[in-house]
Amino acid sequence: MNAMPEARSVDAGRGVSWWGEAWTLFTRNVGMWIVLGLILIVALVLLGIIPLIGSLAAPLLVPAFVGGWLSAARKAETGAGLEPGDLFAGFKTKAQPLLALGALLLLATLLIGLVMGALGFGGAMGMMRGGGPHGAGGMVAGMSAGLPAMLAGLVLGFAVAMAFWFAPALVMLRDVPPVDALKASFAAAMKNIVPFLLFGVIYLAAATLASLLFGLGWIVLVPLVMLTAYVSYKDVFGA
Fold first, then answer.
1. For the residues of 42-82, what is the DSSP string, one character each?
2. Which of 168, 38, 33, 183 is nearest to 95 (CA)?
3. Is the pLDDT of residue 133 over 60?
């Protein structure tokens, strides 16, 4: 186990630069990054169609897939060739800590769902879906009733995203224990909240564009987002 890495604060504009640096890395191996992205998308889609088990397995396995992707990014940066099996490097070399990270992500996802449910999210959605002559009124009432739950979900989801953004890299590339990786990731994201907000704005715009034309843009956006995780990790924590 390595010592806990120290995060540094970066300029706000780095939230934009991460996209440019990820794009440069992407264009060096366009074909293979797209292949890896398609494998990941298909794997998650197949998991999603499995009732109950699939929705639980996806967050459990995602950190291991991300770990493999980060390892592939480091490999590509040295000029080495990529192959489809690189996506599974996390399962081969760091399966236990990455799956533990996935279990924590699953737990966090379930807890967010429970909090939103306790605040009446399910009932609010039922009101919004209600038909009949008072359908419009029901939709407005449902939106009002569900606002606290949606705000709670947004805040908690953002906190979880910050805790998990750098965590797979810290586990895979620095051998940091899962819980320590989550703490370090959250602290680093808070330390760089402005560049992260800029990054998020660009992501929302890119996701909107990617969803056009039957969502084909995600074939490029998924690999690109994965590579931003790598370049932002390097920027904040070093190589």
1. HHHHHHHTSTTHHHHHHHHHHHHHHHHHHHHHHHHHTT---
2. 168
3. no
Please state, in angstroms and rounded to a whole number, the distance separating the CA atoms of residues 220 and 84. Answer: 16
> Residue 114 contacts by C-beta under 8 Å, 6 or more apart in sequence?
none
Distances (CA, A) of 204 to 193, 200, 225: 16, 6, 12
Domain that holds residue 71: 14-126+161-237
- Two structure tokens written together for 227: 């590579």
Residues 6+ apart with CB under 8 A from 136: none
Is 176 inside any structural domain? yes
N residues, the chain: 239
Best CA proximity match to 227, nearest among 57, 33, 12, 64: 33
For residue 3, being part of any structural domain is answered with no
Q: Tell whether 73 is covered by a domain.
A: yes
| Encoded amino acid at 85, one letter | G
Handedness of CA 34, 206, 232, 67 (dihedral sign): negative
Q: How many domains does the chain have?
A: 1
pLDDT in tens, 193-229: 999 999 999 999 999 999 997 889 999 999 999 999 9
> Which of 73, 104, 118, 131 has the alpha carbon at shortest distance from 185?
104
* 63 contacts 101 by C-beta, under 8 angstroms: yes
